[in-house]
Amino acid sequence: MKWGLVVVLVMWAPLTMVWSQQPVRIGLFEGNLPTSVELTALSGAFEWVDAQGKVIHEMGIKSALSLANGRLNLVEGERDYVHLRPTLPQSRVQLRAPGKYPTVHTGRLHFLVESGGIRCVLEAELEAYLQGVLSAEAGKGHHPEYYRAQAVVSRTYTIQAMGRHRMQGFDVCDAVHCQAYHGIGTVNDTLRQAVESTAGTLLVDRQGRPITAAFHSNCGGQTQGAENVWQRPVEYLVGVADTFCLAMPHAQWTKSVPSEAWRSWLDERRAGSSERTTFLPNERFDALPDSGARIRAIEARSAFGLQSSYFVAVDDGREVRFMGQGFGHGVGLCQEGAMQRALRGATYDRILHHYYTGVRLTSLEALGLFQRD
Ligand SMILES: [Zn+2]
Ligand SMILES: [Zn+2]
After folding, report:
1. How far is the CA of 219 from the centre of ligand 2 (A)?
2. What is the mean pLDDT of residues 212-240?
3. What is the C-alpha to C-alpha distance for residues 352 and 340, in angstroms, rounded to an integer?
4. What is the mean pLDDT of the chain?
5. Which residues surround ligand 2, an ion (CB under 5 A)?
6. pLDDT of amino acid 270
7. Gap from CA of 333 to ligand 2 centroid (Å)
8. Å from CA of 10 to ligand 2 middle
9. What average pLDDT does the segment 219-231 reach?
10. Are 227 and 238 in contact (CB under 8 A)?
């Protein structure tokens, strides 16, 4: 081995440790806390630990937690808090709760009572968590460069979202409110390599701050600026053209609703200042054109359950037919466009620069984030 390479490896190793060991606390079961949980050790070994840090007992293959008198019941005794600690590397545990798909996790699991249910807080390494997020958010069977782009997006999003749930005792939840995370049971080699090969990489704005890495399923040919959806403009979230997603599954949609519902909804907003009920804008719009009032496209989207806020509306007096493009809010990275770009040879950084304007790729260690004491 050449000395130059040895020096590079020696210098690189401690940096790698910095971010790979940074824990993220993920609140599981968001939105529907169970009253009982079954646990199965799939590999390695675990022990149950109480609030004082004292080992209660080693976990066998199976264990169960339930609520009794508003407290956690774990074989012997009731408690307000217990913690499942892995005692071997690569230990994996499966969680099963009534009415939910079983999920597999690696890391520490904290259990506490919240709003009459059991809250599980998984303390996992950032990069392991991201593998699970990718599996839930990016789907299967796509090009590795697309997964790399999505890995950088999800890492950036996580860093920016950290602490959103601080009041509840964790950093991010496992639902789409933060990012969907259903464990690491479905992570394959392609996903794992996408996360590992971009480890620590994230996107920053011109001031060097991690960006709000918004993404959506399909932009319908044109992404839109953040101000159309969240009121305030964001310098790197501006509308860009994207023809790559137009042949993809979510590029077009139609939906019909009774004219009466559409007309009364419009009338409430414009107080009789216009009669117009058909709208045929030829590009993306923020507010319905010539509607007699400022009626935002996103309001129509949520009121009528539309796939996107990019549509035309044709009212024939009996029903109004919405014909739309894209799926999702349309801000930031378009996933189906990114998939196509990857298939046609774009690298992950080129994909990211297309959807986020004026951003820079950097690393967690370059930002001085997540350094160990
Ligand atoms: Zn959340
Ligand atoms: Zn697109």
Report:
1. 4
2. 96
3. 13
4. 91
5. 219, 242, 245, 334, 337
6. 87
7. 8
8. 42
9. 95
10. no
Distance 171 CA to ligand 1 centre (A): 8
Spacing, Cα 77 to ligand 2 middle (Å): 55
Q: How far is the CA of 133 from the centre of ligand 2 (A)?
A: 21
Question: Are the CB atoms for 202 and 155 separated by under 8 Å?
Answer: yes
Q: Tell me how crowded residue 260 is: count the other CB atoms within 10 A of its CB.
A: 12
Contacts of 12 (CB under 8 A, 6+ apart): none
- State which amino acid sits at residue 334: C
Q: How many Cβ atoms sit within 10 Å of the Cβ of residue 285?
A: 17
Q: Tell me: the pLDDT tens digits for 96-121?
A: 999 999 999 999 999 999 999 999 99
Residue in 125, 141, 146 with CA at minimum distance from that of residue 26: 125
Is the pLDDT at 7 greater than 70, yes or no?
no
CA 87–ligand 1 middle distance (angstroms) = 29
Helix (H) or strand (E) holding 19, with range, is helix 3-20
Q: Two tokens at 72?
A: 């956690």
3-state secondary structure of 315: strand
Q: What's the 155 CA to ligand 1 centre distance in angstroms?
A: 15
CB 178 within 8 A of CB 172: yes
> What are phi and psi for residue 81, nearest 5 degrees?
-155, 135
Structure confidence by residue, pLDDT tens digits, 250-277: 999 999 999 999 999 999 998 777 889 9
In this prediction, residues 324-343 reach a mean pLDDT of 97
Residue 131, classed as helix, strand or coil, is helix
Name residue, tokens 């590079």.
Answer: 8
State the sign of the Cα–Cα–Cα–Cα dihedral 26, 32, 38, 42. negative
